[in-house]
Inverse folding.
């Protein structure tokens, strides 16, 4: 699709992960509530194909619930830094230090491959 010479700047959207500008038709819709079929009153966010591919391989079982909770307690006017800080606090509260978890995951993988 890239380099097809289309010039439809009006249709372009921005990837929420990397900030890349992508044509609407090449972007992936991202509904943080995980319910793409209920479109009423919603504004979708978008991911470029690359980021969408990367994100989908990550386990994120409760991510959306956490994000919605953080959003609920973060003022509308909050900067993204404030939001990120609130998010990090919430994640630490719930799951503890992600570094520790990553080491655990590595250990699990090693154990599996030896079996
Ligand atoms: Zn992207």
């Amino acid at each position: 699709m890239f380099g097809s010479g289309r010039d439809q700047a009006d249709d372009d959207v921005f990837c929420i992960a990397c900030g890349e500008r992508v044509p609407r038709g090449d972007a992936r819709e991202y509904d943080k509530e995980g319910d793409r079929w209920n479109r009423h009153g919603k504004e979708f966010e978008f991911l470029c194909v690359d980021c969408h591919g990367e994100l989908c391989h990550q386990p994120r079982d409760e991510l959306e619930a956490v994000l919605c909770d953080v959003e609920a307690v973060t003022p509308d006017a909050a900067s993204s830094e404030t939001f990120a800080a609130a998010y990090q606090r919430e994640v630490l509260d719930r799951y503890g230090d992600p570094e520790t978890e990553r080491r655990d995951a590595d250990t699990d993988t090693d154990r599996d491959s030896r079996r």
In short: The pocket of zinc ion is lined by residues 15, 17-18, 20, 47-48, 50-51 (CB under 6 Å).
